[in-house]
Write a structure and sequence with these properties.
five-stranded parallel sheet, alpha/beta, hydrolase activity, hydrolase, six-stranded mixed sheet, 24 helices
Amino acid sequence: MDIERTLAALTLPEKAAMVSGKNFWYTAAVDRLNIPALMMTDGPSGLRKQDPSASAGDITNSVKAITYPAAALSASSWNQDLMKQLGEHLGEEARAEQVSLLLGPGVNLKRSPLGGRNFEYLSEDPLVAGKLGSAYVEGVQSQHVGVSVKHFVANNRENQRFTASSDMSARTLRELYLRTFEIIVKAAYPATIMTSYNRTNGVLNSQNRHLLRDILRDEWGFHGAIMSDWGAVADHAAALTASLDLEMPGKGQASVDEIIRAVETGELDIGTLNKAVRHLLHVVDKWKPAPTAGTYDHQAHHDFARKLADDSIILLKNHQQELPLTPGKAGKVVVIGELAEHPRYQGSGSSHVNPTKVVTPLEALKSTGLQADYYPGYQLDESETDDRLADEALTAAKDADHVIIFAGYPAAAESEGFDKTSIMLPENQTDLIGSLAKLNDHTTVVLQNGSAVEMPWIHTVAAVVETYLAGEAVGEATWDILTGAVNPSGHLTETFPVRLTDTPMAPTFAQDPRHELYSEGIFMGYRYYDTHEMHVLYPFGHGLSYTEFEFTNLSVKQSEFGATVTFDVTNTGDRAGQAVPQLYIANHTSHAPMPTKELRGFAKVAVAPGETQAVTLKLTRQDFSWWRQGKHRWQADSGDYELMVGQSSRDIRLQAKLTMDFKNSPAPITDETYLTIIAQNARLLDLFKQTVIQPTNQGENGLLSATDENGVPTVLSDQMFLNMPLRALIAQGVPASLIENFIQAANSK
């Protein structure tokens, strides 16, 4: 397509139609210029192409498609290669169904475990979400299908999501909630970005010029199209002016008419409209649908869904090697819980997929070789205990060699559109787990849930396996882990707190219908728990294996641009396994508030028994940077840092200190800079001596002429003076002009 010629040929009504969704799933076509309509559909964890005969609001009536693990589980793989393969599988399916844009991935951060849509998101950490999200995008788009990364930005609660404002500091926004999108935009070049419903600091995101134009377009260089979430546009002309390109799903002719009217009245500049149409023409040209419908191997894609779940399921606890249960040696096994028969394998809402086939844990049990009986134990859609069901389960469990109870939330408890009010399992399940553990020391809990749960029974059960929402192969993958057919290698991408009240936003989350105050700032997730040395149920990054890994030989090579970190991972057990080494940085030099540690790199490493694999992770200047609000820029400070390598944020195996010297890093010196900062920096100390101490008439200023026993000026050695800002020296008689000369010299490059 000749974009500029086509743009020039479009009439005003045609342009107005193009920036307004034709209907629920299509953009507007312009037949006379051979501009096709693009079909889009939901797809973070499976294709939800609406059946043509279904109403727009019927989210369950869609074509049959593979239901992959929800993002909460697939992200727990920490496996970028597998996430790219997931994207490739989804892209192939979308292409076969003539879908041009797949609405995903969802990459909002898991700020609170009450977030109703947490199952659809990747992590509480922006690096994990950014790296895994980038791999997903690359995979989908390699199949000639575009994506829509969502929801931009700070959409971390569902209650009042259309109107509530996410209120936070610029630093919090930059370092956490924007950072994920920045990583994906710069690394994977997504076709589109979808704006969220909410406001950010009072401005509706669909018409937030600062976010859409200043940051996304101008600063990050995003060249794709920006579209709205469904119904997120309040003022279409204002949204276009702010750099939105496409309102979805549009309001029919009313949307077209309002754009025409806005141009004719001068409310909307025609050049602004042309920019939006130009962006959409590029998307149409690059991501136009396949000319004919295709096919794909459903069984092969189901097998991949199983593989992805296998790689992602997390072994949280395994007391005295309770697991795996070896067929032929495990003895009598009792399986309890309605979720074994009717599993939760996907979330509710717009990500709901009509599965090709679901293999339940009860069905998959038949092929494991285990001798097992099944008892429902509880009613999933009830919270009160059914005494008959509970008594049957307890009687059977009493004499069993092993008890496996499947537990989790009913579908009605977790969905898009509303937030949870508790992270406790239903009362009947909680009570049953406690009773089973008292009767039988060999009780394993298998969880099916969308996000973190409280576990008041954790110290009484032998093992806990977190499957989150494992997709249509839930049964096969669960028993793969339980029987040891697959060695578990999943690791948490969110922290499990002991209690909901331990979370930093517990007192305020979703309390104000109009404002969500991010008062915790950057101290969210493990950044909060680790910095405050709080006890947690399971830390960020945690995951066990049926083998053991040893980390050795940490080596760091640094430069003014960053550092290269290498270390060895050795499998010291007798089973092949996959380790997930995580690299954290502790900033000991910057004087802004800093978390105890922040994740800056990770890998997934397959290691055979007795084998050693070398791992190399590279750190850039960005990894040492923080957002300086007053200067509106990223800042990397020269000084002391600490590197930590471990298997979770609390399981640190290797540590190394390093001193970074970032050339051309501007010194943020003001009259409120304390003398201790100057005394600790060789360059600043030398400048201070040259510009302040030496020019001063020693006889007229006793403050600067006084020295300690080593000849160092007292103002640079005495603790009382070191705890003074530069402006305090003026009050002590130091000429203001000298202080100004020093500040100017310190801040010059």
